[in-house]
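Researcher: Quick test of sequence recovery. Tokens follow.
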């Protein structure tokens, strides 16, 4: 309730040097404690982590973490799919094609599909992927644009919002019009 009287120290320089030394000592102890805790947590996580190797074309299920308003989470299916891995960004990040959507997902949100039969759309998709050829003669790896066709060697433009590539002819864009605008938004991302 009552403020204390402030006493000025006559020897402030040694006091500040001592204070700085004590603060550095406290920070060192905190860093050491954090490092020890981090190593312990990593060790415990690595014990439970399951490293599954996925490749392009593998069938997978995708963990559904969405909470739909009005639906009981407990009674909803936990996994979406099956889907097909269409692109492998790294050993932990994948692009998965579901029936009506393409989703980028982490390794931890995927589960290998071990079904004996797969849906018809997956068979059609795999058949279509094997039929499409590139100019060199091998099968194409990626499909682009709203037409879902591969790169044909002609002008393409990348959307700055969704990072999807589009054939200039399909979206009605020329090289000159793209150079005049600082950013390009595809028909899906346009406001």
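Model:
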């Amino acid at each position: 309730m009552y403020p204390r009287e402030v006493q000025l120290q006559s020897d402030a320089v040694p006091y500040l040097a001592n204070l700085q030394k004590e603060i550095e000592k406290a920070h060192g102890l905190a860093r050491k404690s954090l490092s020890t805790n981090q190593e312990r947590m990593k060790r415990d996580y690595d014990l439970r982590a399951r490293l599954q190797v996925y490749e392009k074309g593998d069938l997978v299920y995708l963990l559904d973490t969405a909470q739909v308003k009005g639906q009981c989470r407990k009674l909803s299916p936990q996994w979406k799919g099956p889907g097909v891995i269409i692109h492998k960004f790294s050993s932990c990040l994948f692009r998965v094609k579901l029936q009506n959507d393409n989703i980028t997902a982490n390794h931890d949100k995927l589960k290998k599909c071990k079904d004996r039969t797969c849906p018809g759309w997956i068979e059609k998709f795999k058949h279509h992927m094997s039929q499409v050829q590139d100019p060199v003669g091998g099968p194409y790896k990626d499909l682009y644009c709203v037409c879902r066709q591969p790169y044909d060697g002609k002008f393409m433009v990348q959307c700055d919002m969704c990072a999807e590539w589009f054939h200039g002819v399909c979206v009605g864009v020329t090289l000159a019009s793209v150079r005049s605008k600082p950013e390009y938004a595809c028909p899906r991302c346009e406001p």
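The beta strands are 59-63, 79-88, 93-97, 102-106, 110-112, 156-158, 165-167.
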